[in-house]
Design brief:
The complex is a heterotrimer. Chain B is built from 16 helices and 23 strands. Chain B is α+β, with helices and mostly antiparallel strands. In chain B, the strands form six sheets. In chain B, strands 8-9-10-1-11-19-12 form a seven-stranded mixed β-sheet, with helices on both faces. The termini of chain C are close together. The chains are: A mainly alpha, B alpha+beta, C mainly alpha. Chains in contact: A-B, A-C, B-C.
């Protein structure tokens, strides 16, 4: 868990993109993520077929020919489905992390800023939630709300809150205990100014790294729920759901199993590499 | 690295402690793998086909079904009723033994009925026993049932495993750890979620069941295991880990080509898969919306895509093998596949491609039904019906359908691919007679028709009335039949297995099975 | 040390207490009428019977009273009965829990056996091509969805090659699920071991030991390993929780009869007493393992041991 920023005061990050691109993992990660965003944005234009159209080709056509990645059990074009799936996957990652990040950061910063009993309550409940583990929280949420993609995303988002809260709290604590911060308080700076000008910019680099890595965790978790049938419902071209459906055709059409799996793995790898790259480029003293 | 070492060793020790299993089957045990487990060994505590199939091995019933699905004598060697059809007297076979060595007689039948009607924990299928008011042991081999009103569906019910006779020596642990019956197989153990181990009942006597074997099964043991993944079941069949299992549907042609495993498809399953709708709110309170769905559905194409030739389209609200079923009769009234007609009806209702009719489409998990739902979803989209699929367990589905019927607010519809298997058209009474199992469509005319199907003792008169009910349900698109059979009806069997067959209503029978080779 | 452990145990007890409150509330968060959903399978239930069930579950009482009723039963070891089949929830769970624990332990064993040496090697060769290659493999491992890895292993080893059985609960059946879960977590251990080792190796006392010309192997064994593996031990508690979570998916792929497969079935069947029991059991196991790991850590770390 990386929580450290070591410089005093807010920090600009001019050369950071250069540093990011210079680290191999950062560059590869960024390239993968940009490619994904491109696919997601222009899925309609890039996809050769309608992803929901049955019988666009024969059933179980192997990759190659008219269908780059073959067709599925309904004769739907797999390449088009994977392309549209990238949109769903990115959306899942963004929304889930958005939920974890906003609530987690709010909790972490309030706890670090207010201290005292508010801090105690917030951080102890975070500890309790944290020890439940994300899987259990997500599963409990789906158990109550019922299986759907929306509920799975909410579940994954909520499950991530304790981790983000803890990380943000630790990062914010480093700042609030510094001399300049106490000086600003005694100089009569209001809470809003303190939080927005001093606290937020300083926790942000850490949180960006955590959130980038978190996108990959969220995507994996949501895909796992969909795989179990507790997430996306048909005909959504969600990759985890597609993978689950491919199990029946493992002999007859193994590409239906391999390709969505590779898509998930590459996406997750992209965010992991980017997160790693960001970590080193945003924080040069970081050793890990 | 010493600490790590001890740590690992400690862990390995714990591992050995918690592992007390690794059971292997004896050479002469039949192994049958299914996708899921039973809910209970107690015939009053569950309704799933998975459970019923096991009860039919453990217990006897008063009557049995012949190859056409008609009731014949079994533990009851004969029966008679009074002229009103309100009293039934059964005379029972002598010398039948329960698995614990106690005799099976009229007292056990009375015990079974009393438990089914018990105050604090009645049977889940209490309604299907009919209006029984008293059961009387006239002598150990004669039992008399008294009914409040005539109920012709009682006889077929007594041939179904829902009415399995529970030995009155059952006590503590019945249903979970013990199950004393008089059927061809005795319970050895049940590990929930994993396996049921049975051994042959050497004293078994077969009076009316379809097996050729008049006595105890040929093989010593039968192990019923749970293997949820279809491909894993197929692999287990190929390697000989299991003898009998449901194969992945898409691999059936390949299995047939290879010719090693044989494929057995159950006939006269009574299984009916159909559309029904939430009729107490728009859009499906209007018959035109229901007909639009029916006309947009091409069941024949959809099932051939998903199941190949393993299923067939069904025209009647009760399926082949059930009293009253007549394909030609029903075909006159079942709304045929006609997308143009469907579009007209939708236009009539003010819908268009840009303003689609929106509905939830509820589907039961498993057996590739969600894939079939996906095909139907695409067919409905062709005419401008936007259906969002929700997949759920059969229990949740039942609850949800009722909730949807009780919800009269809103404009988003709800329809579902419901599934029922029954041995008699009396199921239609349960579904569509006021108040209706799901609180769905009801009407005074339909109630009157259904009432008569319960009391008409003359088969021809009853058949005519049952078919009037069919006509009503089809013309009003209340119960739109899609196909049959629908679940757990395909079996792949290893070559060394001889004598395996599936009795009507999907009851696999192992009494004749011999493991050769 | 006792103070440290005492705090951990108190925290664990607190967590379990919160869980009992949450599982009581769970049934109220369900949209619709939970009793009706639970008894949907039964065609014979009358409104009176539904009311009776509601009463017996205490759902007609206020929430605090319900909580006390639940706790009273819980303390007697009564977790209620399953909706499907009416079996005691505790019995159903205890029958399967050993299988899940076995899977998680076996996976942990594999993860450590593979992950720690790789991490150590990478740290030892920090900055070399070996290090970079190993860490690329590790990050790829972390990115691999374990349900996909499981399917691929199933496909190759069980279906294609037929080396391993595909169903049942014997030792051979344990291999693939444990491998699936272990491999995807080995990468985490590798990364952690590496960074921790590098950390320790840059410490002054280690540098001094090297400078003194002590044999490299001796320094590594005596100073680096022990200190470097401490964070790995701390991680084991959290990792075990991950394993338990991962087991839910893996059990479903390999038909392994553990509580994870049971939980997913229970969610589909809306068997709320069973779901409640699962959540409670899961958190008790995770909390218990965390305390054990903390105790282990306390024994190993001289700073805590002496305090």
């Amino acid at each position: 868990m990386n929580t450290s920023t070591h410089q005093d005061g807010p920090r600009a990050a001019p050369g950071f993109l250069r540093r990011l691109l210079r680290s191999p993992s950062g560059a590869i990660g960024l390239a993968i993520v940009l490619l994904l965003i491109f696919c997601a944005l222009f899925a309609e234009m890039l996809a050769p077929y309608n992803p929901a159209k049955m019988g666009a080709g024969g059933r179980f056509l192997p990759p190659g020919g008219d269908h780059l990645l073959g067709t599925d059990e309904f004769g739907r074009d797999l390449f088009s489905r994977i392309l549209f799936g990238s949109r769903i996957t990115l959306l899942i990652g963004a929304v889930a992390v958005g939920i974890s990040l906003t609530i987690g950061m709010a909790v972490g910063m309030i706890a670090a800023f207010r201290r005292g009993w508010i801090e105690a309550i917030l951080m102890r409940s975070t500890d309790v939630l944290f020890s439940f583990t994300e899987t259990l929280i997500a599963l409990s949420f789906v158990a109550v709300l019922g299986p759907s993609l929306q509920n799975a995303v909410i579940a994954v988002g909520v499950a991530g809150i304790p981790f983000y809260a803890r990380t943000c709290y630790a990062a914010a604590l480093v700042e609030t205990s510094k001399s300049y911060f106490e000086a600003s308080i005694s100089a009569g700076a209001g809470p809003a100014r303190l939080v927005l000008v001093h606290l937020l910019p300083n926790v942000l680099p850490t949180m960006i790294v955590v959130a980038t890595l978190g996108v990959s965790t969220a995507i994996l978790a949501a895909a796992g729920l969909s795989f179990l049938g507790l997430g996306a419902q048909p005909p959504t071209s969600e990759w985890g759901y597609m993978l689950a459906g491919s199990r029946d055709y493992i002999n007859r059409a193994p590409w239906l199993m391999t390709i969505p799996g590779i898509a998930i793995a590459v996406t997750v790898l992209g965010f992991n590499l980017l997160g790693d790259g960001l970590r080193t480029s945003l924080d040069p003293v970081e050793r890990k | 690295m010493t600490f790590l070492h001890t740590n690992l060793r400690r862990m390995a020790g714990a591992t050995a402690l918690v592992a007390g299993f690794a059971s292997s089957a004896a050479a002469d045990d039949i192994i049958w793998a299914r996708y899921g487990d039973i809910d209970s060994l107690d015939p009053h505590r569950a309704t799933s086909t998975l459970s019923l199939q096991v009860w039919s091995l453990l217990y006897d019933t008063l009557l049995a079904t012949d190859a056409d699905g008609l009731p014949v004598p079994h533990f009851a060697k004969s029966w008679e009723s009074n002229a009103d059809g309100t009293e039934y007297t059964f005379s029972l076979q002598d010398g039948v033994m329960c698995h614990d060595g106690t005799p099976l007689d009229a007292n056990d039948v009375k015990y079974t009925i009393d438990t089914a009607f018990s105050e604090d924990a009645p049977s889940l299928t209490k309604g299907s026993w009919g209006p029984i008011t008293a059961s009387e042991v006239l002598d150990p081999l004669t039992i008399k049932l008294t009914l409040e009103t005539p109920f012709v569906a009682l006889i077929p019910f007594l041939a179904d495993s829902f009415s399995s006779i529970i030995c009155d020596s059952n006590g503590e642990g019945f249903g979970t750890t013990t199950a004393i019956g008089s059927g061809p197989w005795k319970l050895v153990s049940w590990t929930k979620g994993d396996r049921i181990v049975l051994e042959k009942n050497p004293d078994y006597r077969n009076f009316g069941k379809l097996a050729e074997n008049p006595g105890a099964p040929h093989e010593d043991g039968l192990i019923i295991t749970v293997v949820p993944e279809p491909q894993a079941r197929l692999a287990a069949l190929t390697t000989g880990e299991v003898h009998i299992a449901e194969p992945p549907f898409d691999d059936v042609p390949m299995i047939k080509d290879e010719g090693e495993l044989s494929i057995i498809v159950a006939e006269n399953t009574g299984q009916n898969v159909f559309w029904e709708f939430a009729v107490h709110r728009p859009p499906f309170n209007d018959v035109r919306a229901r007909l639009a769905v029916a006309h947009a559905t091409d069941a024949a194409t959809a099932i051939s895509l998903i199941y190949g030739d393993l299923s067939v389209p069904e025209n009647c609200p009760v399926s082949r093998g059930v009293f009253g079923n007549d394909q030609d009769f029903c075909a006159q009234y079942r709304p045929a596949y006609d997308p143009e007609k469907s579009k007209e009806l939708l236009a009539d209702l003010g819908y268009s491609m840009d303003n689609p009719l929106e509905t939830a489409l509820l589907v039961w998990t498993g057996g590739n039904r969600q894939k079939l739902g996906e095909v139907f979803q695409a067919q409905l989209a062709e005419v401008g019906i936007k259906a969002s699929i929700e997949i759920m367990d059969i229990g949740s589905l039942n609850a949800r359908v009722r909730q949807e019927n009780e919800n009269t607010e809103g404009t988003t519809g709800s329809m579902d691919m419901m599934t029922w298997s029954w041995y008699d058209p009396d199921i239609l009474y349960a579904l569509w007679h006021t108040p209706g199992a799901y609180r769905g469509y009801t009407s005074p005319e339909l109630d009157a028709l259904l009432d008569e199907t319960r009391v008409l003792t003359d088969p021809d008169a009853r058949k005519a009335k049952v078919q009037e009910v069919f006509k009503y349900l089809l013309e009003n698109a209340i119960h739109v039949p899609l196909y049959t059979p629908g679940w757990e009806w395909v079996f792949a069997v290893r070559p060394e297995v001889e004598g395996f067959f599936v009795a009507p209503f999907v009851y696999p029978n192992f009494s004749d099975v011999k493991l050769g080779g | 040390m006792w103070r440290f452990l005492g705090t951990r145990i108190a925290m664990g007890a607190f967590t379990i207490w919160i869980t009992t409150i949450l599982v009581t509330l769970l049934i109220h968060a369900v949209p619709g009428d939970p009793v009706q959903i639970m008894y949907a399978q039964s065609q014979g239930t009358t409104p009176e019977q539904i009311e009776e069930v509601r009463r017996s579950l205490g759902l007609d009482r206020s929430i605090p009273v319900q909580y006390l009723m639940y706790m009273e039963r819980l303390l007697q070891g009564d977790l209620g009965a399953t909706i499907r089949g009416g079996q005691p929830v505790l019995e159903v769970i205890l029958q399967r829990l050993p299988n899940t624990l076995l899977l998680a332990c076996a996976a942990m064993f594999i993860a450590i056996l593979i992950g720690v040496p790789i991490g150590f090697l990478a740290a030892y060769r920090e900055g070399t091509l070996t290090d970079i290659a190993l860490m690329i493999i590790a990050i790829a491992g972390i990115s691999m969805p374990h349900f996909w890895l499981g399917l691929m292993l199933l496909f190759f080893f069980a279906l294609e090659l037929g080396w391993l059985p595909v169903s049942g609960n014997g030792w051979l059946n344990l291999v693939l699920p444990a491998l699936t879960l272990g491999l995807s977590n080995a990468a985490i251990f590798a990364r952690l071991t590496r960074s921790s080792m590098i950390d320790v190796m840059s410490q002054d006392y280690v540098q001094t030991a090297f400078a003194k010309g002590l044999p490299k192997a001796l320094v590594l064994r005596r100073h680096v390993l022990r200190a470097g593996l401490l964070p790995v031990v701390t991680m084991m508690g959290l990792q075990f929780a991950f394993m338990m979570g991962g087991a839910i998916v893996v059990e479903n792929i390999f038909s392994w009869n553990g509580v994870g497969r049971m939980a997913v079935e229970a969610i589909f069947q809306r068997d709320y007493p069973l779901i409640q029991g699962f959540i409670l059991t899961f958190s008790v196991v995770v909390v218990f393992v965390a305390i054990v790991i903390d105790a282990l850590y306390a024994v190993l770390d001289p700073r805590i041991r002496r305090s």
